[in-house]
C-alpha cells in the first residue's frame, strides 16, 4: 500500500501545477541525462498526482500518492516528505493523511488496555486535571487527589504546563500522589491512573520516563507537538515504559488553526497521533471553551478509535454537557475536566460525583433541566455552568 | 531576566482581554480561597502583560512577560508555556520571543568553529546539496562530491528528504563520500564538510548520530521541526557528537506561513534555533524561489549571528544573486545552492566555480551584466538563471 495525502488550495491557486510541484519537489526532484543510468531508481521515488477536485467554492482538493520507500515508517520522516520544504511555498493545507495499516505504531495499551488497568468496561471514564496549574506543593496535589480519587475518579493528569520545575519537582509530586493511589487501592480495590507530565532536555526524557514508571507512575502525559513525534515514538517503543501515554495537543493550533496553511487538526491530533504511538489523545471538544468544528472532532474520534486509541475531548468539559458527549461518543470516551471538576461550587469531590450523576441520568434517559434535577452535585454543577 | 513574548492580533480582536487570558491561562490559572495558603507561590508563576500597542491598521501587538521558573531552560517547555493551549484559542500569532542570554544553549561549533574546521576565515562559504534528492546510489553521491569538492566547495549536505532508506542506507553513502573527503584532504590539504542527514526512530537517532560521527561524518543535518527541538538539544548536548549541526527548516511553513496564526519565521528559524543548539540554520532567502519577506530574513540573520550561529539563506540560490546576498550579509554567510550548483549548464564543478568567480567579482566591484562577463562558469550560470 502507499501513502496518500490530500492537499487543499483556496480558489485562485493553480492546484494542478502545485500538485506537480509537490509530487516531484518533495521526492526525487528533477534530473538530466547524466543520471539516465539511474532512471528506474529515480522514478521509483516519485510521487503521483492521483486526483484533483475543484469544489463549488472554487477551492481545490488534490490527492498525491507517495512511495513508502521514501520514508522510515515514522512520523518525522513522513512530515518532512509530505510538507517539509513545500510548507514554505505559499498557501496550501494538508487535509488528510492516509497511511497503510502497518505504518508506524499501534498503541501499546490503548482503549482495551486502559480499561483493563482500571477494570472499568461499560461506561465512559472520568478524568480530572490538577488545578491551579502551577504553584501547588506536592502535598497540595496529594490532598486534591485524595479528594477526587475518593469520589470515584478514574484518571487524573498534570496540567500540561506543569513541568519538572525546581520549585515543584515531578518526582516529589509523584511520590506524594503515589501514596494516595496506593491508599485508594487498599481501601476500595480501585485503580486510579495518574498521567504524570514527562518533560526534560538533552536526551534525558526517556530516562526520566523510565524512572517515573519505576517510581510508580501508571500513566504518562506528553506534549507531543512541543517535544516532537520522535519522543512519542521513543516512549512507545521502550520496553520499560509499559504505561499508557496520554498525548496532549498543546501547540496544535500553531499548525492547525489557520484556514489555508498547515495541517488539519484531524491529521495532527488524529492520524499522526494514532500512528505515532499514543494510547489516548486529548483535543478540543466542539462543545467546549475552544473554537473547534464538530466535523473535525468527529474525524479525530473515528481515526483514533480505528487504531484502538482512546479519544479524550477536552477543554471546557463540565457535567452539563455529558448528554451531548455521550450522544456523539457512546461509551468509549474519556471525559476530561479541569475546572469542570476542580471548581465545582462545593468541592472537587462533588465535581467528580456530578459527572457520575450525569452518566447515570443519561443512562436512565432523564432530563438535565435544572428544575428536574434533585438537589446534589449535578444540580449544583448545572446551576454554575449551564 | 525574564521571558518576553510579543503576540499579534488582527483588528477586531480584543487584544487586552486576550493578553490577560494568556498571562493567567498559560501559567498558574485561577484559584479560590482554598489555596490562599499558597497565594505567594501561585502569584510567582503568573505572567504579566507588559505592553499593548494598537497599530495604524487596527491590529495589536501585546508583550507578555513570563517567569523563568515556569520552564526548564529548553525550547519544548517554552513552547508549551507561551503558545501551548492558547494556540488553539483562535486567531493570534507569536511575533517575537526574547530570552535571557543564558537561556537554552549556545552553538557548540557555530560560525567560529565551522570556519576553523574549514580553515576559511575571510569570505562567505559555498555549500551544495546533493541532487537529485532520492534515487542515487552511494557511488553516485561519491562521484558528485568528487566533482564539486575538487572545484573548491566548502560544504555539501544531503537533501532533507534523503533519509536512511533501505534502498539508500546513510552509512553506505557516508562511507563512499568519506573516501572522497579524505582524498581531497590528502591532495589539497582542504577540509570539506559533509552534513549527513540524521534520522531514525524509537530513541535510536542519537545513537545513530554518534555512529555517523565515529564513521567520519564531520557535520550533521537535522530536520529540527519534524524531529523536534528535543532532538536538536540532545544532539547538541552529546559529548561524542562534536560536529556542527545544520538545522533544516522543513515544515517551518506549517507553523509560520499563515499571516495571523502560529509563529513568525524569525521566531522559529531565528530565536528557537539560536537558543536551541543549532550551529548553522537554513531558511528561505527573499531573493530565492520561496516567498519570503526581506525584513523577516534580516531578523533571522541578526538573531542567529548574535548567538554566533551561521546564517544559511537557501532555496533558489544561484551565482547571479551573490552580489545581493553579499550586500545584505557581508562575509559571515553560507551560500547554499542545490540546483544552482548541480544543474549548472556545464557541470556541478562549473557551478561551484561560478560561485567563486562571483565572490571575486563582488570583491573587485565588477559588473554582473552578461555582456561584461568573461567566458566561463559564471557567465554560463548568469545566462541560465538571471
Question: If you had to describe this structure to a student in words, what would you say it looks like?
Answer:
Two copies of one chain form a homodimer. Chain A contains 16 helices and twelve strands. In chain A, strand 7, helix 7 (about 205-215) and strand 8 (about 220-225) form a beta-alpha-beta unit. In chain A, helix 5 (about 140-150) packs parallel to helix 6, helix 11 packs parallel to helix 12 (about 295-305) and helix 15 (about 350-365) packs across helix 16. Chain A is globular and about 80 Å long. Chain A is an alpha/beta fold and about 375 residues long. The longest helix of chain A is centred in the middle third of the chain and has 19 residues, at about 170-190.
Mean of residue pLDDT of chain A? 96
Q: Name the poorly predicted regions of chain A.
A: none
N- to C-terminal distance of chain A: 48 Å
- Described by the principal axes of the CA atoms, the overall outline of chain A is globular
Pair with the biggest interface: A-B, 93 and 93 residues
Largest pleated sheet of chain A: 8 strands, parallel
Q: Residue share in helices of chain A?
A: 40-55%
Q: How large is the share of residues in beta strands of chain A?
A: 15-25%
**Can you list the strand order of the major beta sheet of chain A?**
11-10-9-8-7-6-5-12
Order of helices and strands of chain A: EHHEEHEHEHEHEHEHHEHHEHEHEHHH
Assembly state here? homodimer
> How many DSSP H or I helices of chain A?
16
Radius of gyration of chain A: 23 Å
Number of strands of chain A: 12
Which structural category do the helix and sheet elements of chain A fall into? alpha/beta
Amino acid at each position: 500500500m502507499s501513502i496518500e495525502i490530500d492537499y487543499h488550495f483556496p480558489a485562485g491557486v493553480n492546484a494542478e501545477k502545485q500538485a506537480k510541484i509537490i509530487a516531484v519537489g518533495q521526492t526525487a526532484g528533477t534530473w538530466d541525462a547524466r543520471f539516465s543510468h539511474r532512471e528506474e531508481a529515480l522514478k521509483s521515488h516519485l510521487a503521483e498526482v492521483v486526483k484533483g477536485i475543484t469544489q463549488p467554492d472554487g477551492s481545490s482538493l488534490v490527492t498525491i500518492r507517495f512511495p513508502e520507500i521514501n520514508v522510515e515508517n515514522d512520523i518525522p520522516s513522513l512530515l518532512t516528505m509530505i510538507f517539509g520544504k513545500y510548507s514554505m511555498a505559499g498557501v496550501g493545507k494538508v487535509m488528510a493523511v492516509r497511511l497503510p495499516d502497518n505504518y508506524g505504531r499501534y498503541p501499546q495499551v490503548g482503549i482495551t488496555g486502559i480499561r483493563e488497568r482500571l477494570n472499568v468496561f461499560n461506561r465512559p471514564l472520568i478524568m480530572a486535571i490538577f488545578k491551579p496549574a502551577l504553584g501547588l506543593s506536592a502535598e497540595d496535589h496529594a490532598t486534591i487527589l485524595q479528594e477526587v480519587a475518593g469520589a470515584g475518579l478514574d484518571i487524573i493528569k498534570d496540567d500540561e504546563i506543569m513541568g519538572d520545575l525546581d520549585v515543584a519537582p515531578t518526582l516529589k509530586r509523584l511520590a506524594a500522589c503515589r501514596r494516595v493511589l496506593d491508599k485508594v487501592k487498599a481501601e476500595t480495590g480501585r485503580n486510579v491512573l495518574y498521567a504524570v507530565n514527562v518533560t526534560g532536555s538533552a536526551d534525558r526524557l526517556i530516562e526520566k520516563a523510565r524512572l517515573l514508571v519505576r517510581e510508580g507512575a501508571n500513566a504518562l502525559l506528553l506534549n507531543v507537538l512541543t517535544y516532537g513525534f520522535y519522543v512519542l515514538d521513543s516512549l512507545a517503543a521502550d520496553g520499560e515504559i509499559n504505561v499508557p501515554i496520554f498525548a496532549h495537543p498543546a501547540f496544535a493550533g500553531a499548525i492547525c488553526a489557520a484556514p489555508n496553511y498547515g495541517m488539519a487538526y484531524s491529521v495532527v491530533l488524529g492520524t499522526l497521533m494514532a500512528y505515532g504511538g499514543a494510547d489516548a489523545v486529548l483535543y478540543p471538544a466542539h462543545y467546549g471553551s475552544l473554537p473547534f468544528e464538530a466535523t473535525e472532532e468527529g474525524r479525530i474520534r473515528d481515526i483514533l478509535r480505528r487504531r484502538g486509541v482512546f479519544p479524550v475531548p477536552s477543554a471546557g468539559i463540565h457535567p452539563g454537557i455529558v448528554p451531548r458527549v455521550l450522544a456523539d461518543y457512546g461509551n468509549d470516551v474519556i471525559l476530561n475536566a479541569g475546572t469542570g471538576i476542580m471548581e465545582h461550587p462545593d468541592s472537587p469531590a462533588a465535581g467528580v460525583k456530578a459527572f457520575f450523576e450525569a452518566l447515570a441520568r443519561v443512562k436512565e434517559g432523564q432530563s438535565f433541566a435544572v428544575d428536574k434535577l434533585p438537589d446534589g452535585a449535578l444540580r449544583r454543577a448545572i446551576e454554575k455552568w449551564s
